Task: structure prediction
Amino acid sequence: MPRAHALLLEKVHPSADDEFARHDVSSTRIDKGLDEAELIAALRAAPGDLPLVVGIRSKTRVTKAVIDAVDRLQAIGAFCIGTDQIDLAAARAAGVAVFNAPFSSTRSVAELVMAELVMLSRQVFARSRAAHGGKWAKNAQGSHEIRGKTLGIIGYGHIGSQLSVLAEAFGMQVLYYDVVTKLPLGNARACASLDELLAKSDFVSLHVPDTDFTRDMIGARELGAMRPGAHLVNASRGRVVVLDALRDAIAGGHVAGAALDVYPEEPASESDPFVCALQGQDNVILTPHIGGSTQEAQANIGLEVAVAVSRYLEGGRTLGCVNLPQLDMPPPPSLRGQAACRLLNIHRNVPGVLSRINAVIAQSNVNIAGQALGTLDDVGLLLVDMPLRSDEPAAAQLCAAIAALDTSVRTRLVEV
Ligand code: NAI
Result:
């Protein structure tokens, strides 16, 4: 009997089924998005009475109604970056863990940016457009190698640091600016301020998250602080750059060109129109948020989410979970080589919960070998490692007694 069953929708990459199978989680597929009623019916019809996982991408909405209707739903895998399509608060309140894959497309984004640096520097798009129109624009005017030029990376996280390595392999000098102190890779150097980076870079590439501090972080003043003739690339989030200011800086000639993959307003679907202040400019590359859209990224997403969900089902580990406290407790050394189990308890975050749970454990005369507690808003997650086999009646009785506390939302035995 498998440990759990995963219903995978929307053509999640097959790497997910393979990984689930490795963790003893069976899976079935419905290759399209489902509406609320269809999703409830499909989950209720899932095989056996196993704990359930639902895997979705961006089209299927997992609402409170879905979460409340399917009691055996343990986890939701968002096989994408965003989780807006899931009612995260309802999932948290019901003790349903949500996992996504924020870092699976790192390489894909970095490769696109590298390509764009060359395309901008060689005016490839303008020349291609001319050639399509029957014009032979064969000259070296305004065309440069990127070797020896300086790339300024704003945000030296997963993508920024990967880009740093690729850019150095092209012979570029790399500067970066990050609000957190980051270890430089290769010969990259950190800048003390954003202005220092802007003043020293031939290309500026943004790789920051969308926060209150990054919104509009590149406006008229910052564009004016860039080197004359420099290029700007934004494949991070649309609201980081003020597009009207960028249009003016390019029209005025101070900024030579730009490549944008993300926009403040993006169409919801391929059939909706796309409008942007920089349309129609020859030295601007516009791509429809495809930085992470590769088969390799999809395969990575399948793997990353399936691993995270499986680790949660097996051992209660919530690393990468977006709506529950993140706990990754290793087994305590005192349990090594012994029969042991881990109790997972998701509870309402109110005073006194821990002492009530520990009182139940103390009454059953079981020693606690390890314990970890995390809280997030209205919910707490507790892991308790005990020297009991999970199939011993004592373990099941203890689990039932803790599940019966009025503060408990979900309680189950997992592996240590
Ligand atoms: P990350 O979290 O690994 O790195 C972000 C870095 O930005 C961190 O080092 C952080 O300290 C830094 N940072 C935060 N605020 C800053 C500020 N005010 N100034 C300077 N640095 C700041 O994120 P990752 O994976 O590298 O992604 C970067 C961006 O790329 C995100 O906005 C993400 O949404 C976007 N992205 C875009 C894709 C696309 O298809 N175009 C695909 C994947 C990610």
About this structure: Residues 5 and 47 are 7 Å apart (CA to CA). The radius of gyration is 26 Å.
